[in-house]
Every structure is written in C-alpha cells, then in structure tokens.
Amino acid sequence: MVTKSVAEAPKLNIAILGAGIAGLTLAIALKTHPLFKITIYEKATELKEIGASIALGPNGLRTLEKLGLSDVISDENGFRGTGTAGMVYRHWKTNEIIGTDVHSDVKEWLHQTTRFHRGHLHGKLVEHVPSDGIKLGKKVVGVEFEEEGVIIIFQDGSRVLADIAVGADGLRSGVRQALVPDFKLEWSGWTAFRSVFEASLVGSIPDLPKDSAHWWGPETNFFSSRLGRNMYTVVGGVAADPKDPNARFEEVSWDETGEVNLLREIYANWNPVVKALTEVTPDIRYYPNFSCSAPLDTWVFEDRVALIGDAAHAHGGAYATGGSLAIDDAYALHLSLNSIFTRSDNQKPSAHEIGQALRLYEATRKPHAEKLLKVVHAGNAAKIEKIRKGTLEKDEELRARAQKGSNTGWLHEHDVVKAFEEALTASETIDASEDKVPARL
Ligand SMILES: Cc1cc2nc3c(=O)[nH]c(=O)nc-3n(C[C@H](O)[C@H](O)[C@H](O)COP(=O)(O)OP(=O)(O)OC[C@H]3O[C@@H](n4cnc5c(N)ncnc54)[C@H](O)[C@@H]3O)c2cc1C
C-alpha cells in the first residue's frame, strides 16, 4: 500500500447541515483536523441574534472548555449567579425557597450552570468558525445516496456531494424529514411566554433574588434570571390538554409576538416579586413546546448521514438541557470521527469505516438521549392527566416535589468522554469477537 503524506491525502468532505448550537460546535471541534474539509449549510439568509434565554449545564460548559472556547463560556457572555445551585425552587405565593438542585461534583467556577441570551452564545460560537465555512440561504430539502457519497439537495435546486452529512438542523429537521418521513412532533400542551430585556429594568424590584429562580405554582411556573451582557429574562406560560379542541396557543407559531398583559393577568395573584417582574416585562413572545412522539430507531443512515442535537432527539427543551446535549453530541461525533482517521497511511476511509464511526457516535449518545425522552414523555403524560382530571396539586405535594428537586445530575454532570470510551471498548469487543476486517472503498 502507498502511504500518502497529509498534504497529498484526500480530504473527507463533511457537510454540516444547520448552523445552530450543535452544528457550530461540531465545526469548531473538527476544524483543525488536517484531513477533514468542513462546510456548514444553513437555511437562514443571515445569522441574527434571535431567541431568548438558554442554559448550559456543567457538561456542556466542560465540553466547550475542552474545545478552548473560554470566551464563549466567560462571565461576560453568560450569568452564573452565586454559583451555589443549578436551580433554586421558590414558592409561588410566599417566595420562600422550597428546594434546590445542587451539583454533586462541580468544583470549577466556569462549570457552574450558566445562562445566556441564545444570540450571545450562538454569536460567540460563530466567531470560531472560519467566515467562508458557512453557506447561508441553504435549506436542506432532500438527501440521496450514491456509491461515492451522499448528495444533499437544497430548496434552491442546488446539490452537493459529501462523504458525510450531519443533520444538525434542529427541532424541525429537514434532513430527518427526508430520511424518516413518518416522524412526528407533538405539542405537549405547554406554551412558554418568554422575554429578554435590559437588566436595568429590574433594578428597583425589592427582594429580587440574586440567583436565577424557578417559582413553582399549582398550575404553572415562573422563571427569572439575569443573563450575560446585562440582560434579564423572564419565562412564564400556560399548560393545556393538547387534545382539547379549545386549547389556547395550539395555533401560535414559535417566536410569535405575544400579549404581555396576559402574562400579567396569569401571575396577578403571585408573590410581589413575580408580580413586579411581570410589570416591568416590556413584551413577550410565545413558544409552544413540541417534542418527538417517539424516539427515532436510528440516528445513522446508509453509513453516510448522522443526526445530532434536536434533529436526533427532539425532547422539547425540558430540564434546560437541549444546548448542552447538542454540544455533547457534537463532541462525541468529533471523537468518533477522529477514531477512524488514526491510520498512518492517510487513505480515505471506506463507507463502511465511516459507518462504523457514525455508529460509535450513536452508541455513545443514543441511550443517554432515550433515557431523557422516557422521563420527558412520562412527565408530559402525568401533567396532561392532571389537567384532564382537573386536579390541582395540593400545597404540601408541591412543597414535597420541590424539596425532592429535579434529580437531573445524570444529565447536567454527564461525562461524554467516559461514555465515548465505554462505547469504544464495547465496539472493539464486538469487532474482535467477529474478527472484522474493515472494508476499503
Ligand atoms: C433561531 C433560534 C432561536 C432559539 N432560541 C432558543 C431559546 O431562546 N432558548 C432555548 O432554550 N432554545 C432556543 N433554540 C433552540 C436551541 O438552540 C436548541 O434546542 C438546542 O440548542 C439544540 O441545538 P441544535 O443545534 O440541535 O438546534 P438549533 O440551535 O435549533 O439549530 C438548528 C439550525 O439549523 C437550521 N436549520 C433548520 N432547518 C434547516 C434546514 N432544512 N436546512 C438547513 N438549516 C436548517 C436552523 O436555522 C438553525 O440554525 C433556538 C433555536 C433557533 C434556531
């Protein structure tokens, strides 16, 4: 076999479809590899600061730090509060603290749960991607497979051939739609009302908690937090039975301008801090909550395509973990792809070898995401059942629930590198037992 130098070695063309949190993180992780050529295709025609607040837990923050992105996770860009708790739960009427989620093994300040304006997190990630590496106005509408690779079809009629395509195109993924046409998203019945505004507006509210806080009530919740760069966010909302034909908000579109007086009405009888927060909130937008009706059977298609982030596991943002999950997906895929390019001959890997790497990524991440989806679906079903029966949570039940906390250390402190190493060992054991020889192109 002829050994090629890195300079003359054929590059592996990797098309990342979607320039969101997952797609950008993957591009950053892969950009220094001399044998990968990365191009991101994004449907938006401009990368604007849209969205509201987004949280990253210790897992996502640690991963971004491993990628050298200290400016992205800095205190300037995001808000950590006093850094003592992942989440503080307060009573809707009395404002007293009734529970906390405390990280079990987070020693570094920069790894404490951090809250960002999504535009600021996204904008900082964009700065780490070469400016000619993102092709805008490229909405993916189809995918075809050929012997030499995968063809990506865009709405503008153009097509590109890649060795690997990564569907990082979010909740309403066009890549997933093309490959799994019967996939369904369903409305959970919850519609969030979100607002992000200058922190100076909350300056004169007495007793405003320093930390981010989640007030729990019998019918709905309220969240507020500072964000980086002197911004502030509030999130309220209403829960409905999604099958109720009269349910409000089923028809509203994501990010639609809402009616701020509605927010004020819903929380009119809550404690004075929440009430005051609703009064200074200048405007709101509606975000109906959608998640997948069932997990996908596979995230890997024809040894050429993998899904990451919300495209792979649309869980609806529960437990504020969607951003960190997307970041860890990207990191796991980067580790898996690197594992197929460790050969000294610098030959282009075969489709079969690429498929092995993609399946290694899937083995690292899918069980973790499925565990989350199970929890989310059970939680949604329980909430809908309560609404249908018209039963309101009693005060002692609410307090007991808050005292227990969310029990999400397994999510927020998940170690993606350890999970990857375990999946790698398991795959090597299978390969050895089957005495597999990797196929060549
Ligand atoms: C504009 C925007 C604002 C958001 N605001 C918030 C927020 O305020 N709070 C919050 O918790 N979460 C928000 N999210 C969702 C959040 O970013 C994700 O849930 C999470 O970070 C997982 O990231 P992701 O990369 O999988 O998906 P996303 O971050 O949603 O990224 C998907 C990317 O793919 C692009 N895309 C979609 N379809 C196609 C297609 N067919 N072809 C090519 N590109 C496509 C999208 O424009 C987007 O850039 C927002 C997402 C978007 C796109």
Number of helical runs?
11
- Taking pLDDT < 50 over at least 5 consecutive residues as the criterion, the unreliable ranges are 435-441
Order of helices and strands: EHEEHEEEHEEEEEHEEEEEHHEEEHHHHH
Q: Count every beta strand, where a strand is a DSSP E run of 2 or more residues.
A: 19
Q: Sheet bearing the most strands, described?
A: 8 strands, mixed
Number of domains: 1
Q: Estimate the global geometry from the Cα principal axes.
A: globular
Overall CATH class:
Alpha Beta
CATH homologous superfamily heading: FAD/NAD(P)-binding domain
- Classification by helices and strands: alpha/beta
Q: Can you put this structure into words, describing what you see?
A:
The chain is an alpha/beta fold and 441 residues long. It has one domain: FAD/NAD(P)-binding domain (3-Layer(bba) Sandwich), CATH 3.50.50.60. The protein has helices spanning 21-30, 58-66, 118-126, 174-179, 260-266, 272-280, 322-340, 351-389, 395-404, 409-412, 416-434; strands at residues 12-17, 36-41, 53-56, 87-91, 97-101, 114-117, 134-135, 140-146, 149-154, 159-162, 164-167, 185-198, 213-216, 221-227, 231-239, 256-257, 285-292, 300-301, 305-307. It has an 8-stranded mixed beta sheet with strand order 5-4-13-14-15-12-17-16, sandwiched between helices. It has a 6-stranded mixed beta sheet with strand order 7-2-1-11-19-18. The protein starts with 11 loop residues before the first strand and ends in a 7-residue tail after the last helix. Flavin-adenine dinucleotide (FAD) binds at residues 17-23, 41-44, 50-54, 118, 139-140, 168-170, 174, 309-311, 317, 322-323, 326. GO terms for molecular function: FAD binding; monooxygenase activity. Belongs to the paxM FAD-dependent monooxygenase family. Keywords: FAD, Flavoprotein, Membrane, Monooxygenase, Oxidoreductase, Transmembrane, Transmembrane helix. Residues 13-373 form the FAD-binding domain.
